[in-house]
Amino acid sequence: MIENLITERIIGCAIEVHKQLGPGLLESAYEECLYYELINSGLKVKKQLALPLVYKEIKLEAGYRIDLLVEDKVIVEIKSVDALAEIHKAQLMTYMKLANIKVGLLMNFNVTKLKDGIVRWII
């Protein structure tokens, strides 16, 4: 499945979650509900995937975790903050680089309309 179709389905599932729950909950609640929706839509999803940091010749288990990896092609980072900051985008880009994934979605569920809280990134 190509990345554009995957992100379209992810966003549709996220909109359903946001429609049901609204803003104001913890990231973990949105993550669990989005995971449920994605699995039920037939997508392959890995949750809280450990992401090692490779520095020169050593592999460091530094505690980085991808919120959701969908179809081994799209990273989804979930936030529930007043506003997305540049550091959130930098985090997504770093995860994408470390995991060698070309497409990422940064989703802030703490907004009135979810479309205002979504950033799609391609490297």
Give a written overview of the molecule.
This protein is α+β, with helices and mostly antiparallel strands and 123 residues long. It has 3 helices and 5 strands, in the order ααβββαββ. It has helices at 3-21, 27-40, 86-99, and strands at residues 45-55, 58-70, 74-79, 103-108, 118-122. The chain has a 5-stranded mixed sheet with strand order 1-2-3-4-5, with helices on both faces. The chain starts with a helix and ends with a strand. The model has no long low-confidence stretch (mean pLDDT 95).
Shape: globular
Main pleated-sheet profile: 5 strands, mixed
Task: Figure out the total of helices.
Answer: 3
Contiguous low-pLDDT stretches (5 residues minimum) are none
- Spatial order of the strands forming the largest sheet: 1-2-3-4-5
Structural class: alpha+beta
Average predicted confidence as pLDDT: 95
Residue share in helices?
25-40%
Task: Please trace the helix and strand order, writing H or E for each element.
Answer: HHEEEHEE
| Beta-strand percentage range | 25-35%
Tags for this entry?
123 residues; alpha+beta; 5-stranded mixed sheet; 33% strand
Write a compact overview of the structure shown.
This protein is α+β, with helices and mostly antiparallel strands. Helices cover 38% and strands 33% of the residues.
Outline the secondary-structure elements.
Elements: H1 3-21, H2 27-40, E1 45-55, E2 58-70, E3 74-79, H3 86-99, E4 103-108, E5 118-122
Parallel strand pairs: 3-4
Antiparallel strand pairs: 1-2, 2-3, 4-5
Helix pairs in contact: 1-2
